[in-house]
Task: structure prediction
Amino acid sequence: MLTHEKLKRVLRYEPGTGKFVWLEQIGRSKVGEVAGSRQSSGYWQIWIDGESFLAHRLALFYIYGCWPSHDVDHVNGIRLDNRAANLREVDRGQNMQNQRRARKDSATGFLGVVPNRKRFSAQIRKDKKTTCLGTYDTPEQAHEAYLAAKRRIHEFGML
Result:
């Protein structure tokens, strides 16, 4: 298990840029190089002693000396932006409020919109409760209704 002391001995975190820099050579790393690489999921990952760490979680561990107990959210939605000012610890429901686009398997391609017979329903979720926002003729109209509701009730959303 990675300790706070070891982390600070082998890496320097730069809160203004969100980058980690090697202070010791570990494996193929070189002292002074930016640590890590981009994962296929879009997050920055750093390997230490054969174990993979997500840089945004590592950043909060570096700053506070303890691992985040919840999700770590990128406020601006950019997964590679690990500046301290862009990271916040949130619960899963709060983190889900920061979604900006529909999942790849969405039936409509619009966040908050589902097909409803030959029309489209807008719906939003908060605190494990789904609220129907109405049914519309086009997915674009339903999406607009969703966005309006999201701006009102998702305090952690950044649209």
Observations:
- The two ends are 38 Å apart (CA to CA).
- The first strand starts at residue 11 and ends at 14.
- The CA atoms of residues 134 and 152 lie 16 Å apart.
- The mean pLDDT is 93.
